[in-house]
Write a structure and sequence with these properties.
By secondary structure, this protein is of the alpha/beta class. The protein is built from seven helices and seven strands. It has a seven-stranded mixed sheet with strand order 3-2-1-4-5-7-6. The structure holds S-adenosylmethionine.
Length: 212
């Protein structure tokens, strides 16, 4: 699969195109459902009973785009705060919210690397096909520092027993390690899984939980 180019594939007419593609909607919603199931993953630990206590959770959808992922999370019974850095994408999510009369969705125009979210306020975090873009135009030490700071901040805004499920497309093993290390060194346990374990790049899932 060709990895879309950020931000060019998500602005102006491209945002419109993205939102109108039925196969994209199907893919994003299918992947979101898989990530919701991963929230209850047994390998993440035995605290599944605890994480059920706060139901319905408040879920932060990082890089919510035009809202396919948020819509799926809401239809699974959760409340959602969707965050995206591009107004062209977010405006389409807002249209959906109004047309479908969705009440459980708040939308924020913001950068995942600089989230305006209160500490200890989010139950769980999901991110579908967006997290690899957070290093856009960042290199070397600056890239590493930013990825680490973001992981640290995600830890801070999560409540106790909070989990983070990320589906994304790291470019290569080095980039995958950069992301996994950022979580390992900033208060998370968990593991990485791929549909095709032999692939070096490509679709990857990070299943993480906040350390107690
Ligand atoms: C594949 S799209 C959206 C996927 C979305 N989950 C859906 O269901 O439609 C990726 C999104 O990530 C957003 N994005 C990229 N970098 C970002 C950042 N640093 N902060 C917030 N959003 C970002 C893009 O603007 C784009 O809307």
């Amino acid at each position: 699969m060709k990895i879309p180019q950020f931000p060019y594939d998500y602005i102006g007419s491209k945002a419109e195109e993205y939102d109108n593609q039925k196969w994209m909607e199907r893919n994003q919603k299918r992947t979101t459902l898989k990530c919701i199931q991963y929230l209850f993953d047994k390998e993440l630990g035995k605290d599944n009973n605890n994480i059920l206590k706060n139901f319905p959770y408040l879920i932060l959808d990082l890089g919510c785009g035009t809202g396919f992922s948020s819509e799926m999370i809401i239809s699974s019974g959760f409340r959602v705060v969707g965050v995206d850095i591009l107004s062209d994408m977010l405006m389409k999510a807002n249209v959906k919210r109004k047309n479908l009369k969705i009440n459980n969705l708040d939308l924020i125009l913001a950068d995942i690397n600089h989230l305006p979210i209160k500490s200890n306020s989010i139950d769980h975090i999901l991110s579908i096909s967006s997290y690899n873009f957070i290093t856009y135009e960042k290199y070397g030490k600056e890239k590493k520092k930013d990825v680490n700071n973001t992981a640290k901040y995600l830890n801070k805004i999560l409540k106790k027993n909070g989990r983070v499920i990320i589906e994304f497309y790291p470019e290569n093993d080095e980039e995958l390690e950069l992301f996994t290390d950022s979580f390992k060194h900033n208060g998370f346990d968990g593991y990485m899984t791929k549909n095709n374990p032999k692939q070096k790049s490509g679709q990857t899932y990070l299943l993480l939980k906040k350390k107690i």
